[in-house]
Amino acid sequence: xxxxxxxxxxxxxxxxxxxxxxxxxxxxxxxxxxxxxxxxxxxxxxxxxxxxxxxxxxxxxxxxxxxxxxxxxxxxxxxxxxxxxxxxxxxxxxxxxxxxxxxxxxxxxxxxxxxxxxxxxxxxxxxxxxxxxxxxxxxxxxxxxxxxxxxxxxxxxxxxxxxxxxxxxxxxxxxxxxxxxxxxxxxxxxxxxxxxxxxxxxxxxxxxxxxxxxxxxxxxxxxxxxxxxxxxxxxxxxxxxxxxxxxxxxxxxxxxxxxxxxxxxxxxxxxxxxxxxxxxxxxxxxxxxxxxxxxxxxxxxxx
Length: 303
Hints:
Elements: E1 3-4, E2 12-15, E3 24-25, E4 38-48, E5 60-62, E6 65-67, E7 72-73, E8 76-77, H1 81-94, E9 110-111, H2 113-118, E10 119-120, E11 123-124, E12 127-129, E13 143-148, E14 159-162, E15 183-188, E16 194-204, H3 206-215, E17 226-227, E18 238-242, E19 247-250, E20 262-265, H4 267-280, H5 284-298
Antiparallel strand pairs: 1-2, 2-14, 3-9, 4-16, 4-18, 4-19, 5-6, 7-8, 10-11, 12-16, 13-15, 17-18, 19-20
Helix pairs in contact: 1-3, 3-4
């Protein structure tokens, strides 16, 4: 597999060998009134492996000047579910024969596996990531993180991912003038902070469930950390997903009972079988690429 590692000061690597998209026919049933496949929910715990910043585009002012605050709802710190979903989708697309960013043309009646799971224009996805439970900002050691403002440009080819461990500086200088680049301040939660969310899934096949678990870095045999939020190119945003209470798969009474029954599936056994089901359905060439990508996620290339 070819990996583009960028210039010495780049904070990313790109997979130049990507998996060609493969489309299949759209499911021919309504998702909310037809029992098909796996339905249920799983409680997610998101642990910060490095400081994490998730902003909203707003700015605030303190005694040192302007900064971007961490996202809040009702005064409490949160990570929006759309942010989590976008991150997981990025990894799912890289680890499957999928398009990028939901570009499948639904009007043609076919979508790739990532679009079947996460949705596309004109086609509702079958997974919902809820906003994390709010954390009291007084109980979290928030701090301001100063870093260079730098857009590293569009990737040349392939899919770009940011390093977890590469020792890059948060402050950079102009290579021609030697002067520091403009800086910005963001509010970060510290390493070790834990957020709790919930994932709801409907009508997933075993193959789709396998890809979903794999893309969240939850496969026991293929564990890896993800990058989430802002400042990913400045040593921020490394997170690790956990399932503290397993995978709750609903029975056939999910739409007919006020208290539907759930069977708790274990990630180590049932989850491993789902991931193996997905991997076994790939071609030999595609599976080899997926395993190379996972190894890169597990250990940053040349970090």
